[in-house]
Each structure stands twice: as structure tokens, then as C-alpha cells.
Automatic annotation (TrEMBL):
<dbReference type="InterPro" id="IPR040079">
    <property type="entry name" value="Glutathione_S-Trfase"/>
</dbReference>
<comment type="similarity">
    <text>Belongs to the GST superfamily.</text>
</comment>
<dbReference type="GO" id="GO:0006749">
    <property type="term" value="P:glutathione metabolic process"/>
</dbReference>
<dbReference type="GO" id="GO:0004364">
    <property type="term" value="F:glutathione transferase activity"/>
</dbReference>
<dbReference type="Pfam" id="PF00043">
    <property type="entry name" value="GST_C"/>
</dbReference>
<feature type="domain" description="GST N-terminal">
    <location>
        <begin position="1"/>
        <end position="82"/>
    </location>
</feature>
<dbReference type="InterPro" id="IPR004046">
    <property type="entry name" value="GST_C"/>
</dbReference>
<dbReference type="InterPro" id="IPR004045">
    <property type="entry name" value="Glutathione_S-Trfase_N"/>
</dbReference>
<feature type="domain" description="GST C-terminal">
    <location>
        <begin position="88"/>
        <end position="216"/>
    </location>
</feature>
<dbReference type="InterPro" id="IPR036282">
    <property type="entry name" value="Glutathione-S-Trfase_C_sf"/>
</dbReference>
<dbReference type="Pfam" id="PF02798">
    <property type="entry name" value="GST_N"/>
</dbReference>
<dbReference type="InterPro" id="IPR036249">
    <property type="entry name" value="Thioredoxin-like_sf"/>
</dbReference>
<dbReference type="InterPro" id="IPR010987">
    <property type="entry name" value="Glutathione-S-Trfase_C-like"/>
</dbReference>
<protein>
    <submittedName>
        <fullName>Glutathione S-transferase 1-1</fullName>
    </submittedName>
</protein>
Length: 233
């Protein structure tokens, strides 16, 4: 059975998985989850992912959430020889480290500043901005120390996708990160060297840019955590 990916078109975790499946040339069926309609918040969806988060991979009844776990799984199961996820322990550890860094810090800090206020009633605060710069500064340091052209090696790995897509959310809100020279170079090199992959990120970025100009009204979701922005109609 062909792999099914339940994804959302403007979500960094979802598009990261799509980029990896594309590079690995693994056929898959993309099932769009309608976030605005709350499709991911239903009891049915929770059977696939009790975290009620997108994406989810369905490999013939084996359901996997958490995009990092999905990235690792598709490489291990379908293309173990691919250098997208190297086997050598130190090389693999650096990839794993960057994936963890993105999840715990880079995406966490940056998306709270870039994405959350676009969709929900969150303010961009000085503390939030400080956390963005802390995350960027650390990524810049990793580039300096490792001296590689990609995030975890001198070639593309699965670590690049989530880090690129987090960075894309800054471009989506016109946030200037050009002072982080190595991050900026890696980001623009990715666009130039992987146009077919950047197209996937760019599609998401355009959607976010649309929502920046046209803030969505998500009051009907009654989201258990996020405060809905009240839109005057
Ligand atoms: N750590 C998860 C995060 C996934 C995530 O947060 N996805 C967002 C969409 S981009 C979501 O489903 N959020 C649930 C919600 O806002 O209700 C992963 O990497 O897969």
C-alpha cells in the first residue's frame, strides 16, 4: 500500500516530510488536513495521533506522528543507504542533534514569534524577540563550528528541511535575519541549489503571507490552548 501523509500545506513539519519523500523518490498520497475546519481535533484523527497534531504518516496501518520521527523512519525503512540520513554514528548524531535543536529551540522559539501571532491572539513581545535571536545565534554558532555548507554535513540531510522551514517563517513575516551571515547563506544556497524543494517551502510561505495580510478567524475551533483572535466582521 502506498504511504499516506496527512499534512497541512502551510505547516513547516508537514512540508519537511514532503521534501524528504521527494528527495528519496518515495511515492506517497498526500491527504490534506483542513486545520481551519478543525479536522485534526476530531476523535477520529486522535486515533491516528493522540497529540492531535499534523503531520501523521500512515504506512499500511502503522501510524506515526512527530515529523522528526517520520523523517527518520522513512529513511531507515525505505532508503537506508541514502546519505540524507547517514549511518555512520557521529554523522548521524549530528543530524539527530540538529533535529532535536530545531524541535526544542529553533522552531519552538521562532514559530512562537512568527507563526503564532498570525493565526492566534498572541503578541510579539521583547522576550519573544530575544528568544528568536538566541535561537539564530546558536544556529549560526553551529555553522561556524562545524564549517559545513549544510546544517549537519557537506550535503543535504533530513536536518536541513525542518531548519529551512523554520527559517522560511521569518521570511514570511519579513523578519530580517541577514546579520546571521552563515544562516543566511545556507538558506539562500538551499533556494538556489534545490529549486524543486524550495518550491514546496515557498508554497507554504505564500500561504502564511496571505494570512499575515488576511488574519484568519479561528474562533469556531474553540482551541483548547490557543486564544482565538476576534476579527471584526
Ligand atoms: N512536533 C510536531 C509538531 C506538529 C505541529 O505542531 N503541527 C501543527 C500544524 S503546523 C499542529 O498540528 N498544531 C495543532 C494545533 O494547533 O491544534 C511535529 O514536528 O510533527
Amino acid at each position: 500500500m502506498v504511504l499516506k501523509l496527512y499534512g497541512v500545506s502551510d505547516g513547516p513539519p508537514s512540508i519537511s516530510v514532503r521534501q524528504a519523500l521527494t528527495v528519496l523518490e518515495i511515492p506517497f498520497e498526500l491527504i490534506n488536513v483542513d486545520y481551519g475546519a478543525g479536522e485534526h481535533m476530531t476523535a477520529e484523527y486522535a486515533k491516528m495521533n493522540p497529540q492531535k497534531e499534523i503531520p501523521v504518516l500512515d504506512d499500511d496501518g502503522f501510524f506515526l506522528g512527530e515529523s522528526n520521527a517520520i523523517l527518520q523512519y522513512i529513511c531507515d525503512k525505505y532508503k537506508p543507504e541514502s546519505n540524507l540520513y547517514p549511518q555512520e554514528p557521529k554523522a548521524r548524531a549530528i543530524v539527530n542533534h540538529r533535529l532535536c535543536f530545531n524541535l526544542s529551540t529553533y522552531y519552538a522559539n521562532i514559530s512562537a514569534y512568527t507563526m503564532a501571532p498570525v493565526f492566534y491572539d498572541y503578541e510579539r513581545t521583547d522576550l519573544g524577540l530575544k528568544k528568536v535571536h538566541m535561537a539564530l545565534d546558536v544556529l549560526e554558532t553551529y555553522f561556524e563550528r562545524l564549517g559545513t555548507s549544510y546544517a549537519a554535513a557537506n550535503h543535504l540531510t533530513i536536518a536541513d528541511f525542518p531548519l529551512i522551514n523554520t527559517t522560511m517563517t521569518m521570511e514570511a513575516i519579513d523578519f530580517d535575519f541577514s546579520k546571521y551571515k552563515k544562516v543566511s547563506k545556507w538558506y539562500s544556497d538551499f533556494k538556489n541549489n534545490h529549486p524543486e524543494l524550495w518550491k514546496i517551502s515557498e508554497g507554504a510561505m505564500k500561504e502564511v503571507q496571505y494570512f499575515v495580510k488576511n488574519p484568519p478567524d479561528l474562533t469556531h475551533l474553540n482551541h483548547p490552548i490557543h486564544p482565538a483572535r476576534k476579527i471584526a466582521k
